[in-house]
């Protein structure tokens, strides 16, 4: 069987072929890598999904199930839908906005605009869909959210399109994550979950082993929610800074990093950092991403 059969030879609609090609899927090998994710690909018709499934099944009879990492990345990115932000420059930096199926961390010091960013992302989602805001620090303001919605001048924007949970403890936070799959199944219009903040529920721990166990449980739950329900998850986080050990007493360089440590850092798809200069100017930086280049842009709320 020809591994490199062009995707244009499949009986797909012209619009489907264009969408596949724009995501870098141009031949049958790359198309086959899409099969494990096929039920999450919204732009494919039932007939097109059946065609891909039939080809995949026939192909694996002869060649086995082997994809390279690039083919799998193209397949994953093919079903990522954008949730655009309130800013064209941020959308450009994020290649269209937050991606469904991913976890994005927004970290920064206090008063840099993390909560504001999360509420503004909720406002953009509320124009057509629904958002879910998990408030662990008692930061959400319905009055402020209403002001943000009025800025959009969209008659369909409504406070009824955002669910808010105020969570006072880690136990309730983990229970909420466990209960969300059932809730999401009955509310399919939810496209964004914001958690403000992820670090706060874990502040009580002095036993790092116990904290690691609880954090791993939260990571598994969030990863499953993002991938199984095709949600964008935005979590805010606090940062800490330290001066690394150095033999030179003149070395005063400070390292800035989000809280919760490497286990958490490796779990997120993207790491964004909000900073504020002495004169009050704020910037948004892409610190880590599997597909975004490192960049920084002005941030205005």
UniProtKB/TrEMBL annotation:
GO CC annotation terms, alphabetical: Rad51B-Rad51C-Rad51D-XRCC2 complex; Rad51C-XRCC3 complex; replication fork
Single GO biological process annotation from the record: reciprocal meiotic recombination
Pfam family, one: Rad51
One Gene Ontology MF term: four-way junction DNA binding
Compartments where located: Nucleus
Lineage: superkingdom: Eukaryota
Listed name of the protein: DNA repair protein RAD51 homolog 3
């Amino acid at each position: 069987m020809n591994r490199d059969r062009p995707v244009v030879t499949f009986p797909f609609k012209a619009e489907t072929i264009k969408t596949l090609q724009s995501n870098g899927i141009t031949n049958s090998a790359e198309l086959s890598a899409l099969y494990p994710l096929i039920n999450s690909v919204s732009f494919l018709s039932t007939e097109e999904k059946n065609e891909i499934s039939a080809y995949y099944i026939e192909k694996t009879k002869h060649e086995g199930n082997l994809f390279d990492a690039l083919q799998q990345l193209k397949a994953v990115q093919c079903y990522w839908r954008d949730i655009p932000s309130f800013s064209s420059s941020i959308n450009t930096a994020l290649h269209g906005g937050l991606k469904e199926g991913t976890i994005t961390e927004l970290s920064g010091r206090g008063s840099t605009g993390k909560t504001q960013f999360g509420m503004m992302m909720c406002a953009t989602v509320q124009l057509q869909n629904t958002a879910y805001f998990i408030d662990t620090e008692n930061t959400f303001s319905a009055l402020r959210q209403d002001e943000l919605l009025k800025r959009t001048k969209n008659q369909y924007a409504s406070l009824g399109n955002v669910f808010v949970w105020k969570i006072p403890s880690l136990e309730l936070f983990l229970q909420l994550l466990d209960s969300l799959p059932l809730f999401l199944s009955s509310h399919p219009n939810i496209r964004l979950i914001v958690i403000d903040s992820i670090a706060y529920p874990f502040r009580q721990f002095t036993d790092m082993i116990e904290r690691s166990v609880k954090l791993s449980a939260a990571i598994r739950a969030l990863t499953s929610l993002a991938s199984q329900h095709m949600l964008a998850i935005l979590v805010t986080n606090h940062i800490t800074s330290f001066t690394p050990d150095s033999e030179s007493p003149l070395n005063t360089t400070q390292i800035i990093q989000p809280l919760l440590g490497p286990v958490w850092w490796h779990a997120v798809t993207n790491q964004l950092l909000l900073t504020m200069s002495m004169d009050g100017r704020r910037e948004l930086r892409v610190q880590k991403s599997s597909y975004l280049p490192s960049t920084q842009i002005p941030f205005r709320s």
